[in-house]
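Protein Record: Sequence and Backbone Structure Tokens
======================================================

Structure line: whole-number tokens from a learned vocabulary of local backbone shapes, matched to residues.

Purpose: to set a sequence beside its fold so the mapping can be learned.

___
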Amino acid sequence: MKRTAPSPRASTMRWLTWFLAGLTLVFCVSAMTSCATGTAATRAQPATPPPPPPPGLQANQRTSCPPLPPARSDLAPDLLENHDQVAALYHACSARTDNLQQALAEWRRTAWQWYCSAVAQLGLSTEGCAPHE
């Protein structure tokens, strides 16, 4: 039996297959080593941190002042007793309100200072970063 020469088309297809396989290999190797050759990693601009949250309030600071009790009658002993109750309730509510105002003032002073310094450390604009009094 006589040997026949391979067809030119079969050798061209074989050559093209090997060429594409080599090209794919070169592409994959270059893609995997591109960062190792000194390509600088990109970094996203950090977001502005959220403003400081309001202070946590105790349960007794969140309740409103109770209604003041009316006097039982127009007699002097009842009026004096009612006056004592009303005065005690008023002073207790006033003290609770003063404590709440002091806590909010302390929070405004310290939390906004911390927030503004954190924003400045990040290198972000401190344009709207003023203590809110």
Notes: The chain has a mean pLDDT of 76. The chain has three helices and no strands. The first helix runs from residue 8 to 33. The two ends are 104 Å apart (CA to CA).
